[in-house]
Amino acid sequence: MRVEVKILSVILFCFFCLPIAAGAQQNKDLGLKTVVIDPGHGGKDPGALGKTSSKHEKHIVLNISKLLGQKIKAAYPDVKVVYTRNTDVFLELKERVNVAKRNNADLFISLHCNSNNSSQPYGASVHILGPKSKNSKNQKDYFAASMSVAQRENSVMLLEENYQTTYQDFDPDSPESIISHSLMWNANYSNSLLFAAEVDNVMKKPPFRVSNYTGIHQDIFYLLWATNMPAALLELGFVSNPSDYAYLSSADGQEKTAQRLFEAFKAYKTQYDASVSVEETPAPAPQSVPQPTAQPAPDRKGQPSVEKFTSEKWYGIQIMGLGRKLAASDPALKGLKVEAVKADESTIYKYVACKSETREAAASRLAEVRKKFPEAFVVEVEGNIVRRAK
Question: Strand order of the sheet with strand 80-83?
């Protein structure tokens, strides 16, 4: 019962608010700095078979991965783009994960193509880590099809030597196995969901075609289970469908697909960077009568004085950043009373709990708040500007 409650609480939190991590970084210069792009399959593992031997899944996703990486580098020279493979070589699933970990990736994107025994299914989909659904209404198509995709992608393990030993801790049917990894990390899961939402948005535009498969799916992929950063696996279309295969295997289709994925990356990076920044551009000084500035309290015991807030300055604990304003009763806030603060030029509301007169008073509540929001941190609020408290 305890396991089920933990799973449910995390899923509800993520789906109700799609929050961005509440400042997992320690200084304002940090944002999305490293992305690992993983072209699925390769070498002795062709993936889904195309009509010609030079246009199997492994070739298609490698081409699109390189195009996506080039677009990211052109737009963001300071972002490090790492490929798990940049040639037609076989790479074990565990090594793909290790590449992301060694490079301290801020985002892991695994690209694949889908396949079916029938030529009828078509469309793209995005997958993030999550447990099997208990919703009987969706069992027939959405989740049954989704789990078949996971089984197909995970089957690559069988091509590896000593796979029984390497993946002995991976049990897709174990809730504890899932909880012990990404689902217990609210920041990673919610950011994965945020990126997935941006991908899902572009997958509803040409060259993609909307179908019953289009959407955000929860699956138990090893690649998503083993990573320790926001991650998503993208199925770009069905190689088994003539129309999907035509655009996926063509240079023009690959270019347009990469462009759409770049648009999703750009939208996600903009929100991610805004959520982890500590300072924002100060708003113009108000024209009203100046308020009295804070004065240090008398030092009666030889200890450092405590700075108290004026009517415009206070302290609190930031729990999340989000691109929309939540109602005070929203379950995503987990019962906390918060202030939603948004700078004039920003699109992000910063949710700050435990409003206090002093930094010390706010800090005293941090351990308690982190039981609900592990990435929470103490901030100073002045007007509509939120800064990490020093």
Answer: 80-83, 34-39, 107-114, 231-238, 125-129, 216-219
Q: Residue 237: phi, psi to the nearest 5? A: 150, 175
> What is the rounded CA–CA span in Å between residue 159 and residue 299?
70
Q: How far apart are CA 144 and CA 178, in angstroms?
A: 19
- Distance from C-alpha of 324 to C-alpha of 348, rounded to nearest angstrom: 7
Q: pLDDT tens digits, residue range 311-341?
A: 589 999 998 776 667 788 876 788 899 999 9
In the chain the beta strands, taken as DSSP E runs, fall at 34-39, 80-83, 107-114, 125-129, 216-219, 231-238, 313-322, 338-341, 349-356, 377-382, 385-388
Position 4 scores a pLDDT of 45
Rounded Cα gap, residues 128 and 138, in angstroms: 17
Q: What are 333-389's pLDDT values in tens digits?
A: 888 999 999 887 776 788 899 999 999 999 999 999 988 877 788 999 998 888 888
**CA-closest candidate to residue 240, choices 48, 78, 10:** 48
- Closest Cα to residue 320, out of 312, 311, 330? 330
Domains parsed from the chain with CATH numbers: 31-276 (3.40.630.40), 313-388 (3.30.70)
Q: Identify residue 280 by its one-letter amino acid code.
A: E
